[in-house]
Every structure is written in structure tokens, then in C-alpha cells.
């Protein structure tokens, strides 16, 4: 009897184990039949169960929830395709299609290498630029992806003035993690505002065309003018009529402008007033003073005849609108 009982128990255990295997094999067969995964790495109970164990992984748990709700095996599996059971940011069906386990967060589809274009500045403002002059601004074409960025074309956007040019010319490649400087030059030919864009075409799958906005205004510069500044005036300080001598006035000037004073473009006038009456007036030409240079001039002498201070006033006339005036004093005594 003892041995008979043990035999009966052994047969029961075998039958129970066989039933479990058949059940598990049934689920796996449904899975393989539904997704064509037979003889792949997903052709294993680990697709629904924790590796090496009997407990269900997150994907298996989601499938079980649908089975308990009355779904068939295939219906349950289809119903959870859009879920991300293991929380690895990939849906179950995406993982199955890529032959990664939908219940294992550490097993997920690899991301194919791809470039990613980024610009250090997407807008370049050139401000005002004199017509005929050029100003260059730069931006950096950066590749923050993990594959080479092939820049295939760099062109002006529709309606953008040809007063804008850029370099380097395409095509060229920016290695992953590297950058290339793009220089844009604005050379206005007239006094207008020019706005537009520079278009950068590349093999970035998400941003095939990157745009740099450009804006600038051409201006006609005011013509250079002669501007002579007084740097000093000196006059004879004291004259006695007992031993009369001429009064002398000396003028020192500078030319801070960018052009020579030329001929007939600047002059200085000296006026002397004594005892309320004008007793002297002389003008001299301030010709051919080079840009950035200085010069000194002495006015014709004046010999006083009466007692009284002489107030000297010098005015410079040039092409600049500022007032250039200076004074000096000569005392006339007995």
C-alpha cells in the first residue's frame, strides 16, 4: 500500500507539471504566432515572466489583467500593444518589433545614430553700415548628435538681398560633437534696410533646413568736413606808451578731422577792442593743415597809441558747425 500511494502521487505531480508546461507553451505559441517571433530571442517564457522565475514581469502582468477581464490570449496581447509596460519609453509593440523584451526596462531598442543641427545664434543683426563698407557676423553650426552632420547647401532665403554673403561654402561635414563657424557678411550698396535669412540644408532627420535670420541697414555717410579747433591764443601782455612796441597775437590750432583743411576752407579772424571801440580786425587763411596736424599763426602786429586794455577775440570759421573762439588781453599803460 505504501508504495502504491507513492506511485499515485508521483503520477499526479507529473500530470500537474505537464499541464503547466502545456499552458505556458500555449501562451508562447499564441505570442509567436501573433508576432512572428518563433526561433528569436523572444521565443521564451521570459517574454512574460521574470527571467528564470515563475512570477510575471510587467508585460505579463498587463496581459494577465486583460485575460482576467475575459479577453482571449491574442486579444489580451493586442490590447496591451500600445502600453509601455516596463516604462522604458518604448511601447510594447515597438519592443516586440525590435525583438527586445517588453517587460524588461533594461532591454530596449537601440536608437540609430543620427546628426542633430544646432545654431549658437539663429539671428544676426548688423545694425547700420556705411554704403560700400562691410560687416561680418558669425554663428556656429553645431552637431549635437551622434553621427556626422552633412551640410549640403547654404543659400539665401527667398527675397534676401545679395548684399549678404556667407562662408564656408557647402558641402562640408561637421563631426558629431563638433562645430563649424558660419560667417555672414553684409555689404550694403544703397541706403535701405535689408532683412532676410540664410538657409542651411543638412541630413538632420528632424531639422533638414535650419534658418539664420539677418537684418541690417545701409546708410550714406555724411561727407567729411574741415574742423579746425583752437588750442591756444597768446598776446603781448603789457605795453608802456613810454617805450611803445607792437602788440603781437599768436594763434595755435589743430585739425582733428579726417581731411586736410585744403585751400580757402578755414580762416581765423582777430578783433581787438580798446576803450569800447574796435581798433583792430585782421583775417588769415588756415590752409593745408593736414588731418591730425597742428599749426601756429601770428597775426599782423598792432602798435597802440592810447592807454587802455585791448581785448583780443579770435574766431575760426570752417565747415564744422561748432563755435571756435578764444580771447586774450594786452594791457596798455603810460
CATH topology of the largest domain: Immunoglobulin-like
Derived structural class: alpha+beta
Could you state the order of secondary-structure elements as H and E?
Answer: HHHHEEEEEEEEEEEEEEEEE
By CATH, the superfamily of the largest domain comes out as: Immunoglobulins
CATH class of the largest domain: Mainly Beta
Q: Main β-sheet: number of strands, strand sense, barrel status?
A: 5 strands, mixed
List the uncertain runs.
1-24
Helix proportion: 10-25%
Number of helices: 4
Number of strands: 17
What integer is the average pLDDT? 90
Tell me, briefly, the overall form.
Answer: rod-shaped
Distance between the termini: 165 Å
By CATH, the architecture of the largest domain is named Sandwich
* Strand order of the biggest β-sheet: 2-9-8-4-6
Description:
The structure is a single chain. The protein is an alpha+beta fold and 334 residues long. It folds into 3 domains: 2-97, no CATH class; 117-219, Immunoglobulin-like, CATH 2.60.40; 229-333, Immunoglobulin-like. Helix content is 17%, strand content 36%. The chain has helices at 2-35, 58-68, 73-79, 92-97, and strands at residues 117-119, 123-130, 135-143, 149-156, 164-167, 172-174, 179-186, 193-202, 209-219, 229-235, 238-240, 249-254, 267-274, 277-285, 294-298, 310-317, 324-333. The strands form 4 sheets. It has a 5-stranded mixed β-sheet with strand order 2-9-8-4-6, with no helix packed on it. The protein has a 5-stranded mixed β-sheet with strand order 11-17-16-13-14, with no helix packed on it. The protein has a 4-stranded antiparallel β-sheet with strand order 1-3-7-5, with no helix packed on it. A hairpin with a 2-residue loop joins β13 and β14 (277-285).
Amino acid at each position: 500500500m505504501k508504495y502504491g500511494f507513492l506511485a499515485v502521487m508521483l503520477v499526479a505531480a507529473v500530470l500537474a507539471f505537464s499541464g503547466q508546461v502545456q499552458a505556458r507553451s500555449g501562451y508562447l505559441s499564441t505570442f509567436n504566432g501573433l508576432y512572428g517571433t518563433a526561433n528569436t530571442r523572444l521565443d521564451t517564457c521570459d517574454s512574460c515572466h521574470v527571467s528564470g522565475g515563475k512570477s510575471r514581469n510587467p508585460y505579463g502582468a498587463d496581459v494577465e489583467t486583460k485575460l482576467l477581464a475575459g479577453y482571449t490570449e491574442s486579444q489580451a496581447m493586442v490590447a496591451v500593444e500600445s502600453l509601455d509596460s516596463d516604462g522604458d519609453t518604448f511601447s510594447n509593440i515597438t519592443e516586440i518589433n525590435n525583438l527586445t523584451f517588453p517587460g524588461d526596462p533594461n532591454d530596449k531598442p537601440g536608437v540609430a545614430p543620427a546628426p542633430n543641427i544646432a545654431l549658437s545664434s539663429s539671428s544676426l543683426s548688423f545694425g547700420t553700415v556705411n554704403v560700400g563698407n562691410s560687416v561680418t557676423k558669425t554663428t556656429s553650426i553645431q552637431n549635437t548628435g551622434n553621427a556626422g552632420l552633412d551640410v549640403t547647401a547654404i543659400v539665401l532665403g527667398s527675397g534676401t538681398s545679395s548684399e549678404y554673403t556667407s562662408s564656408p561654402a557647402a558641402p562640408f561635414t561637421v563631426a558629431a560633437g563638433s562645430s563649424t563657424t558660419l560667417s555672414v557678411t553684409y555689404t550694403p550698396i544703397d541706403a535701405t534696410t535689408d532683412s532676410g535669412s540664410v538657409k542651411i540644408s543638412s541630413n538632420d532627420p528632424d531639422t533638414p533646413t535650419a534658418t539664420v535670420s539677418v537684418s541690417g541697414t545701409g546708410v550714406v555717410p555724411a561727407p567729411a568736413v574741415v574742423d579746425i579747433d583752437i588750442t591756444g591764443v597768446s598776446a603781448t601782455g603789457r605795453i608802456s606808451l613810454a617805450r611803445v612796441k607792437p602788440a603781437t597775437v599768436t594763434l595755435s590750432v589743430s585739425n582733428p578731422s579726417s581731411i586736410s583743411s585744403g585751400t580757402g576752407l578755414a580762416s581765423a579772424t582777430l578783433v581787438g577792442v580798446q576803450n569800447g571801440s574796435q581798433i583792430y580786425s585782421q583775417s588769415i587763411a588756415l590752409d593745408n593743415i593736414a588731418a591730425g596736424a597742428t599749426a601756429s599763426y601770428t597775426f599782423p602786429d598792432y602798435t597802440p597809441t592810447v592807454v587802455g586794455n585791448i581785448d583780443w577775440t579770435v574766431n575760426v570759421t570752417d565747415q564744422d558747425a561748432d563755435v571756435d573762439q578764444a580771447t586774450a588781453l594786452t594791457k596798455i599803460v603810460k
